[in-house]
Write a structure and sequence with these properties.
Elements lengths: L3 E2 L1 E9 L4 H14 L4 E6 L8 E9 L10 E6 L5 H7 E10 L14 E5 L1 H8 L3 H20 L3 H12 L3 H21 L6 E2 L9 E5 H12 L3 E4 L6 H14 L11 E4 L3 H13 L4 E5 L1 H17 L3 E7 L16 H5 L9 E3 L4 H18 L2 E7 H5 L1 E5 L17 H6 L45 H17 L8 E3 L8 H6 L8 H6 L5 E6 L3 H13 L5 E5 L1 E2 L3 H9 L2 E6 L5 H10 L6 E5 L8 H15 L1
Helix pairs in contact: 1-4, 1-5, 3-4, 3-6, 4-6, 5-6, 7-8, 7-12, 9-10, 18-21
Length: about 625
């Protein structure tokens, strides 16, 4: 059989709450330390313990990071899901199982190879105590996989040393468990398998990080000092990361006092209310939530929009409606966030595609919120937020200066004859604001009710409409300030591994020229986490002779380049992860493009989109538009 070196995927099935996360992380990090590009997807239940959980690892020497639904090897250690797991192995693949118990002959497939290792028996013989045996069984299967895949066990031992170096007993137990699985496989099974690892040098300038951690770090770098939240999956770890960073870096070095305020509110509506209040007072403040939280926040988001108060909201999207599937991913809130609240509202939205952009857009969100004096929504998703991604090392410009927007100082107020909070002095739709306590001349009544441009209460039709029209102009002008779309043109295949991992899509040198002279009649359009699947799909479709131009939208309101790209292509396949084609609908509403030019390709089952979904969707529609 032909060997697959550094180009395969495997999946591990266990039960939630058994400690398998540590073993899976050990495997993933060991592959990364071997210099091999790798990504992991954690599929876990919404309860604390007992239900099935899976961990998928994709090894790709070419640097592809999208999920694959095709598994060469399956490590099936959960009796509850064994029959289902067996079905997921590709024909000719391998299934690793705990042979302490006999296999049911009815569950065996003749087209795959079964690899039995008596993990429970081995651990029962070496370790004492039920809990230790359960935990060490996971580390033992990591050792078994190391032998099968030719993983560097010295790297694994090094990782356990780093983690448990201060706990000698636990360190020794982990070493024993790795050796148990590794030695048994070496003695009793053919190894390594035809799918195996081989050291590379492709990860030295990269890191493994999840999007929630990256976003929390971005908030620190942006200068955020206030946060309010209510726990919700999959956003909780974003705030936990921010808390951890603040406890280290937001303390007064002399007094040890905290220089931040983080409040767990009674619900999401209260949380965003606290953020709006803190932002009104001059702090950089944010909240993190998911779709159900956005639903509850709508009333206060409308207040902040109309009263023109900055606020940053991170929406780590999950499946809906209602409770939905809290631990599955989706792009389910594109429409909700764009127009959150009753009445005529429209919000600035940012769409990161990976943890690197989650970090960068966290910083950008605060600048935009204060520049345009309005809520800004950062729409991540569970896959980006909670899974480990391989990305370039994060960089920072030490010369960064926050954009606080039009804030009048005490000196400027003293020179001013009169201050009117909602008066468009510069003609750009953005009025000047003041912070409380700066000067009595800067005092004003912050109104969520009808007000005129001078800040006075009104029910006058013309005065109300004048303010609403100015706010609309202000938000529309943000189209030039949000991160612009990124493009890739037909025939541009990633030249090398480094470009794929570190800069898979770069802004065109002259996007205007390219848009006016497209390389294909067909466009591929997406946002956020679908990006990795689209990049891989483009490469694979090009090998079949079907070439498309690509645009990834990064901000809302949409820039002119978005409309121009859509107009320049006879058909645009809109790739997204929701049932109702929310991105397509948003593009129709906001660009006025002909509906016949937008064809939706959707995958919304709760798992991250793969190149397979994109390719199958395109293939199914090519004949229709040929």
């Amino acid at each position: 059989m032909k060997h697959q070196i550094n180009d395969f995927a495997f999946k591990i099935a266990t039960a939630n709450g058994t400690g398998s996360a540590s073993a899976n992380s050990l495997i993933m990090q060991a592959i990364f330390r071997m210099g091999i590009p790798v990504t992991g997807k954690n599929l876990f239940p919404s309860n604390i313990q007992g239900l099935p959980t899976w961990y998928e690892i994709r090894v790709s020497k070419d640097g592809y990071t999208a999920r694959t639904p095709i598994f060469d090897l399956f490590a099936a250690f959960n009796a509850q899901t064994f029959a289902q797991d067996v079905r997921e192995v590709r024909s000719g693949g391998w299934l690793l199982y705990d042979s302490t118990w006999p296999l049911d002959p009815d569950e065996k497939r003749p087209d795959i190879v079964y690899l039995g290792v008596p993990l429970a028996q081995l651990c029962n013989e070496v370790f004492a105590g039920v809990r230790e045996r359960i935990l060490m069984k996971n580390i033992a299967y990591a050792g078994a996989l190391a032998a099968l895949l030719d993983m560097d066990t010295e790297v694994m031992v090094e990782l356990t040393q780093e983690k448990f170096g201060k706990k000698p007993a636990l360190l020794e137990s982990n070493r024993k468990a790795i050796a148990l699985g590794f030695d048994y496989v070496k003695k009793h099974l053919p190894c390594p398998l035809p799918i195996r690892l081989e050291k590379m040098d492709a990860t030295k300038d990269s890191i493994l990080i999840d999007g929630n951690t990256a976003a929390g770090l971005g908030c620190v770098y942006a200068g955020a000092t206030v946060a309010a939240w209510y726990p919700i999956t999959p956003a909780t770890s974003l705030m936990e990361a921010f808390i951890g960073f603040c406890s280290r870096y937001r303390k007064d070095p002399e007094t040890g006092r905290n220089r931040y305020a983080i409040i767990q509110a009674e619900d999401e509506l209260a949380a965003v209310g606290m953020v709006i209040g803190a932002s009104w007072a001059g702090a950089r403040a944010f909240t993190s939530t998911a779709g159900p939280g956005i639903s509850l926040m709508n009333e206060f988001l409308g207040l902040a929009y109309y009263a023109e108060v900055p606020a940053v909201v991170f929406d780590v999207q999950r499946t809906g409606p209602s409770t939905g599937m809290p631990t599955r991913t989706q792009q389910s809130d594109l429409m909700e966030c764009a127009y959150a609240s009753h009445g005529d509202t429209k919000h600035i939205c940012l769409y990161p595609c990976d943890p690197s952009e989650a970090f960068e857009m966290a910083v950008k969100a605060f600048d935009l919120a204060e520049r345009f004096q309005t809520p800004v929504m950062v729409l991540s998703d569970l896959d980006i937020g909670m899974n480990d991604w391989m990305i370039p090392q994060l960089t920072w410009d030490d010369g960064f200066t926050p954009d606080r927007g039009k804030v009048l100082s005490a000196e400027e107020l003293e020179k001013a004859e009169k201050f009117y909070r909602y008066l468009d002095v510069d003609g750009d739709g953005v009025p000047y604001r003041t912070l409380p306590g700066m000067s009595p001349k800067g005092a004003f009544f912050t109104r969520g009710s009808g007000h005129n441009k001078f800040g006075g209460y009104t029910e006058d039709a013309a005065e109300y409409q004048d303010v609403m029209d100015r706010i609309a102009r202000k938000i529309e002008s943000a189209a030039k300030a949000v991160p612009g779309p990124v493009f890739r043109w037909a025939g541009e295949v990633s030249a090398n591994l480094k470009s794929k991992i570190q800069n898979p899509i770069s802004d065109s040198v002259n996007p205007k020229s390219e848009i006016q002279n497209p390389k294909s009649k067909t466009g591929l359009v997406t946002v956020g986490g679908c990006h990795a699947a689209c990049v891989e799909a483009m490469d694979r479709l090009a090998l079949e002779g079907f070439k498309v131009d690509y645009m990834r939208i990064r901000g809302f309101p949409f820039s002119k380049e978005v409309r121009d790209f859509l107009d320049a292509h006879e058909i645009n396949f809109i790739i997204e992860q929701n049932r109702d084609g929310q991105l397509r609908n948003l593009l129709l509403l906001e660009t006025g493009v002909c509906p016949g030019q937008l064809e939706s390709i959707r995958y919304y089952a709760g798992l991250p989109m793969s190149a397979v979904h994109v390719i199958e969707g395109v293939r199914s529609k090519i004949g229709v538009f040929a």
